[in-house]
Amino acid sequence: MSPDTTKNWFTDPPPRRVGVHDLIMRGQHLLMVSRPYKIKVSQWGLPGGSAGPDELSRRALSRTLDERLGLRVTPGRWLAVDHVPATPGKHVEGTNWVFEVQLPENIEPAIAEGSSFGDARWVGRTAVGELAVDHALRRIERSLLAAETGEVAELHLGIPIQDIGPRRP
Question: Which CATH architecture has domain 17-159?
Fold first, then answer.
C-alpha cells in the first residue's frame, strides 16, 4: 500500500507501535518466552514488550524485562530493527528493536504474575524453529547472526531489507 502523499506525515503521523526485544544467550541456548496473545502470531519469541509514549527503546526494554521476568538488566548492543506492517483489524504498524542482553549465570528469569508471558525456557539454537514461526523465527535467526558478525540487521517481517528488492508503487 502506498502512503497518502496529500497528508502531512510530520504534523499528523500514523499510529506506530515500538516493540523492544532482547536476545539473551547462555552458551548455545537462548531465552524464549511463550506469548498467549489474543491475536494469531508466533506463540514463542524473544522476551520484550512495547515502549510507551516518549519512552526510549532501551529504557522500555529494561522496564519490561523487570516487570515481566524480574530481570534488572541493561540492554547491550543493538542487533536488529524489524518493520512489521499493519494488519487491519489485528495490529498497527510497528518497528521492533532487538538488543543483546548479558545475564549473569546466577540470575534466572521468573515469569511475573499478571505478565503477558505464559512460560520462559532456555532453548538450544537448533530447536528455535520448533517453537518460533514466521517473522518471529526469521527475526531471531537474523538477530543471532548479527550477534555473531557484529552487524545490525535491518528487516521487514524478519527478511533483510536488501533481499526484498526495489519498492514498487
Answer: Alpha-Beta Complex (3.90)
Query: How many other C-beta atoms can be found within 10 angstroms of the C-beta atom of residue 26?
Result: 11
pLDDT digits (tens, 9 = 90+) for 41-61: 668 999 999 999 899 999 999
CB 108 within 8 A of CB 31: no
Q: For residues 153 and 160, is the Cβ–Cβ distance under 8 A?
A: yes
Break the chain into its structural domains and give their ranges: 17-159
CB 39 within 8 A of CB 17: no
Kindly report whether the global pTM for this prediction surpasses the value 0.90. Answer: no
Concatenating the DSSP letter of every residue in 103-120 gives --TT----PPTT-S--EE
